[in-house]
Inverse folding.
């Protein structure tokens, strides 16, 4: 057929491609999710499958004296019971960066809920009962709970003999990583300060609280390998950690992304992946594992709780002189992402402000508390809560408006970060603050406005009917934050995209295949939009994410639209070049523009940049299929110097500002957030609807940290006290305020389409803005989040 | 675990007599949580959902006979005038989905101090109709709660209905939680004025091992209202009386520190709720009030 060429005549002019970037195309899975029909990883099912169950430690720190599985094995319906002794290879640990996490506990458990044994049975209840029959003899050990107990001279070492790449430079073996940053001369600058404000702040342990619990299905394959269907954030990172433990080459562990019910960082570490594979390979049967909500609280890492000491100085005219800070993050029993969280917390500890003279130190501890790792905002959230509290206190000391004070010190393009890295794209910090401040304030006493009786839904306490206006005081607070985008500190942060273009049923169709984990961020929508824009087709098929294509990196660090989106764009561009090559070969004799003009693909046609249509894509391609798989990288970064913290460590920064309006029942200490206005620079909104959704979601998650979300760990036993949605509260729709969003689009010339990663920034400033508003309403200092009624009422 | 599904009340009683360890389940608000958390693995579950009469209510001269399984949603929608305190409390139970399934019988069966219905039942005055194959008896609500998550039921008895006094005066219910909806009580307070008998009754939730009344507070307030001629005059209750009432209410608490709140906060919150609910009910009694404000709109 290839040799029968049609002459491109009688071409219809006009070549708009619909559904490209910048349009709010709808999510393909939106309706299914809203109606409850979407299949999540917990809905996976296989004929003859077994159910896996994990036996977990009831203690935070204990020696395991013995494990007796004999009674469990005897129970009818049980196919396998596995302990550390059953691990098939010499690789018995895993970890994102430091391989310190045992697949199953060996001789010692280091945190409450650590996996000790696995059971596979023909029914989940059978597996549970069998697990209860496993006799583990524990001898409790003293717990390491905070910096003092972790770094005491006689402190029990969480990982004695550790020899990871951070062990050489930390000041104590119970410190995972330490990053100092020194720039300028803070001591000298201090002498110029007219006012000095110092404070100690604390951030509680927040949970990602994703709605779909950890779950997946492992199916043993005839070739001795295993097929794993799984909800995760990064298939290839999982694969790299799973395969060595199983003793399989990576190509024999085939992973397919299953329906993911949210992630927020909590799926960056492994949960049941290796366990399900071990049970499947042992029993020769498919094994499904699903955590319930209780287990889920033990099944993933949380946001690092933090203690932060800050000192700032300023001159009488409102210019910051210096900053000193020390940030102590509790990493819990295993390293997870702690080193990178330390890197972020330290390098972003100044916030979006110009301060040339700084002394910064951030550390993460090993303790017997629950392991902490990635969560939306990743180290920047904790710092933002503290430095924004400091900004308000400084403004108050100087008798300046808190927004004006921030604007006086706001960074802008060209500002040099404390790491010595200049900010080389727009940084409209002052403008974002101006925008949120300029938004009209919500009317006073909205509970009265609805009619003659008070609408309790507009009051603190809501439906619980605690006030009809008594004791209620309004407060307004502002905050702004800075978050890095993409993986930093020299990480080779690439994504792979395979793009195929062919004619199907007379129409050009693009197929995009990546391993990007769609966790709700909207990548599936954006990839199709990019393919439409670059290839000028309407029909785009997004293939399921799996490990048959190269890595797409993690769905975290606000990086997927930037990096995997960038990879899709790059592969589309390469495919387009091939199309144009074919076109030139076939048709250049019919029109000189083939050789001379800049050519584009639009609306299924090849067009010149002047808009003249040269050919139908169908005629160019005929039965050819162009199929390319390419890696794409953002510009490289470099590590921070271990002593000075200097280094071109970050790829891009993302900024958001919030204004919070709250009503506080000052007698009962209850808070109703009335409005959380946000302004954010997104560079380029590829899908404006998704952008606003991300901003509203991040804002709400920040509100949760401000007033309710905390995993409570008993300071004496390091046991988790509230592993349930009864006692770990997340905002309901009645707690979620109106969130007006002002989206700025100032292009970053280094990024695809000028876009800026957006997912995390709104989570940063939301929390301190809400707390600033509560402070204004109550006059209290409130140095800890979440703010509890006890803090407001002094009880 | 065996699942017993009696088709009638008589069958249910027979099943409970035969299997006294059977745990009755209707909406499952508490029972399913306990099973999911593995706090309890009953040998038998006794499903009462086929017993239709449990979802019925009757409004009599003096009382409302409320079937044990009448869902909270129906209480909110249909019994607001007769049982205003319970209707307000019903509104604070969990989520709309759970309010569509859960009923007062479950709260009574679990007898958790955090059950939202208890303060309203204590304040209104109620009797619990319980039955077994041996017969029927009526347990005054004041005698119903016997300990932490324990009640006065015998092993072979089931809760059939609650007989609640129709409101002769204003009632209020207020609950503190650290979220604006769908939250378990940190503590709760119910107040009912009974102008017909010139008494007041209270109920406190989550601030003692069982739901309790603040009897001293009730007696103090009733005496103060009587002595000052307030029932007749409808004058404003002096702040000193409200304060004393609130402090006595807090005195009836015996709270603990737990993950939901401190004991000190619970006492403090009961003080505030007692004072405010007194203000709301008294305003309504005087004819100024809009006691159940806002809630019609939220139904």
């Amino acid at each position: 057929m290839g040799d029968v060429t049609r002459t491109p005549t009688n071409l219809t002019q006009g070549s708009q491609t619909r559904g490209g970037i910048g349009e709010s195309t709808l999510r393909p899975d939106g309706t299914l999710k809203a109606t409850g029909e979407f299949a999540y990883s917990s809905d996976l099912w296989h004929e003859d499958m077994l159910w896996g169950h994990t036996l977990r430690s009831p203690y935070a720190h204990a020696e395991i004296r013995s494990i007796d599985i004999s009674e469990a094995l005897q129970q009818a319906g049980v196919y396998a019971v596995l302990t550390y002794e059953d691990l098939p290879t010499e690789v018995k640990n895993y970890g994102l960066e430091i391989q310190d996490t045992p697949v199953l506990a060996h001789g010692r458990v280091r945190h409450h809920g650590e996996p000790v044994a696995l059971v596979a049975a023909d029914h989940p209840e059978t597996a549970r009962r069998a697990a209860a029959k496993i006799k583990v003899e524990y001898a409790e050990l003293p717990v390491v709970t905070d910096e003092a107990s972790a770094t005491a001279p006689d402190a029990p070492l969480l990982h004695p003999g550790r020899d990871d790449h951070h062990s050489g430079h930390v000041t104590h073996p119970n410190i995972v990583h330490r990053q100092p940053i020194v720039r300028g001369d803070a001591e000298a600058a201090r002498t110029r300060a007219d006012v000095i404000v110092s404070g100690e702040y604390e951030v509680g342990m927040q949970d990602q609280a994703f709605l779909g619990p950890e779950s997946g299905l492992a199916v043993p394959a005839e070739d001795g390998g295993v097929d794993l269907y799984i909800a995760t954030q990064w298939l290839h990172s999982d694969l790299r950690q799973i395969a060595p433990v199983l003793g399989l080459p990576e190509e024999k562990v085939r992973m397919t992304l299953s329906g993911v019910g949210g992630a927020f960082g909590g799926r960056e570490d492994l949960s049941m992946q290796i366990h399900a594979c071990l049970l499947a390979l042992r029993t020769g049967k498919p094994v499904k594992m699903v955590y319930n909500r209780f287990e889920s609280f033990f099944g993933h890492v949380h946001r690092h709780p933090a203690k932060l000491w800050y000192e700032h100085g300023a001159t009488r005219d409102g210019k910051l002189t210096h900053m000193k800070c020390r940030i102590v993050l509790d990493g819990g029993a295993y390293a997870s992402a702690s080193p990178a969280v330390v890197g972020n917390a330290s390098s972003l500890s100044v916030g979006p402000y110009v301060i040339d003279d700084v002394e910064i130190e951030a550390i993460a501890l090993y303790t017997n508390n629950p392991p902490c790792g990635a969560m939306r905002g990743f180290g920047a959230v904790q710092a933002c809560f503290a430095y924004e509290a400091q900004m308000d206190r400084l403004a108050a000391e100087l008798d300046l408006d808190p927004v004006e004070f921030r604007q006086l010190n706001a960074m802008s393009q060209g500002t040099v970060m404390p790491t010595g890295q200049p900010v080389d794209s727009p940084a409209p910090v002052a403008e974002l603050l101006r925008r949120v401040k300029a938004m009209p304030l919500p009317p006073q006493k909205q509970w009265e406005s609805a009619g003659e009786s008070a609408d309790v839904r507009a009051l603190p306490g809501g439906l619980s009917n605690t006030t009809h206006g008594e004791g209620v005081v309004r407060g307004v607070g502002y905050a702004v934050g800075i978050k890095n985008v993409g993986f930093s500190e020299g990480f080779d942060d690439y994504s792979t995209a395979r793009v195929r273009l062919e004619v199907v049923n007379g129409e050009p169709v693009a197929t995009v295949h990546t391993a990007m984990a769609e966790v709700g961020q909207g990548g599936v929508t954006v990839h199709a939009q990019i393919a439409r824009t670059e290839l000028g087709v309407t029909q785009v098929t997004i293939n399921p994410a799996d490990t048959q294509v190269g890595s797409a990196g993690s769905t975290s660090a606000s990086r997927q639209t930037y990096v995997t989106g960038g990879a899709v764009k790059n592969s589309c561009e390469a495919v387009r070049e091939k199309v144009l090559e074919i076109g030139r070969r076939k048709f250049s004799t019919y029109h000189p523009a083939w050789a001379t003009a800049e050519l584009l693909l639009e609306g299924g046609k090849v067009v010149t940049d002047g808009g003249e249509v040269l050919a139908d894509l169908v005629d160019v391609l005929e039965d050819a299929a162009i199929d390319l798989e390419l890696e794409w990288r953002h510009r490289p970064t470099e590590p921070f110097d271990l002593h000075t913290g200097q280094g071109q460590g970050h790829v891009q920064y993302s900024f958001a500002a919030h204004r919070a309006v709250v009503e506080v029942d000052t007698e009962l200490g209850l808070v109703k957030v009335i409005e959380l206005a946000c302004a954010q620079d997104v560079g380029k909104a590829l899908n404006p609807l998704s952008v606003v959704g991300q901003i509203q979601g991040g804002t709400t998650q920040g509100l949760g940290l401000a007033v309710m979300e905390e995993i409570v760990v008993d300071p004496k036993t390091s046991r988790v006290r509230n592993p349930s949605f009864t006692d770990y509260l997340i905002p309901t729709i009645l707690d979620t305020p109106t969130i007006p969003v002002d989206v700025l689009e100032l292009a970053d010339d280094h990024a695809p389409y000028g876009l800026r990663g957006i997912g995390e920034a709104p989570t940063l400033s939301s929390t301190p803005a809400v707390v600033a508003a509560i402070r204004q309403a109550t006059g209290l200092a409130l140095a800890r989040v979440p703010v509890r009624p006890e803090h407001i009422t002094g009880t | 675990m065996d699942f017993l599904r009696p088709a009638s009340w008589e069958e249910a009683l027979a099943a409970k007599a035969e299997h006294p360890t059977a745990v009755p389940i209707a909406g499952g608000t508490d029972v399913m949580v306990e099973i999911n958390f593995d706090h309890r693995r009953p040998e038998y579950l006794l499903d009462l959902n086929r017993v239709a009469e449990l979802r019925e209510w009757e409004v009599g001269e003096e009382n409302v006979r409320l079937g044990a399984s009448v869902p909270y949603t129906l209480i909110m929608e249909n019994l607001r005038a007769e049982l205003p305190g319970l209707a307000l409390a019903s509104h604070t139970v969990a989520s709309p989905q759970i309010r569509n399934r859960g009923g007062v019988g479950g709260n009574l069966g679990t007898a958790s101090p955090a059950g939202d219905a208890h303060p309203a039942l204590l304040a209104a005055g109620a009797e619990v109709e319980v039955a077994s194959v041996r017969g029927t008896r009526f347990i005054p609500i004041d005698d119903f709660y016997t300990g932490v998550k324990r009640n006065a039921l015998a092993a072979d008895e089931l809760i059939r209905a609650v007989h609640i006094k129709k409101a002769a005066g204003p009632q209020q219910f207020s609950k503190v939680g650290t979220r604006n909806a769908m939250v378990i009580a940190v503590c709760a307070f119910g107040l009912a004025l009974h102008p017909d008998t010139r008494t007041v009754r209270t109920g406190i939730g989550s601030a003692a091992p069982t739901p309790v009344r603040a009897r001293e507070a009730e007696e103090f307030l009733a005496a103060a209202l009587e002595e000052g001629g307030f029932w007749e005059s409808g004058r404003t209750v002096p702040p000193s009386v409200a304060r004393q009432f609130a402090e006595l209410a807090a005195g009836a608490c015996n709270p603990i520190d737990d993950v939901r709140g401190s004991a000190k906060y619970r006492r403090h919150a009961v003080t505030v709720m007692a004072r405010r609910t007194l203000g709301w009910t008294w305003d309504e009694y005087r004819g100024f009030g809009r006691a159940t404000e806002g809630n019609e709109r939220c139904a």
In short: The two ends of chain A are 83 Å apart (CA to CA). Chain A touches chain B through 48 residues (CB under 8 Å). The domain at 153-206+303-380 of chain A is CATH 3.30.365.10 (Aldehyde Oxidoreductase; domain 4). Chain A has four domains: 30-38+494-633, 41-141+213-260+267-299, 153-206+303-380, 424-483+650-793.
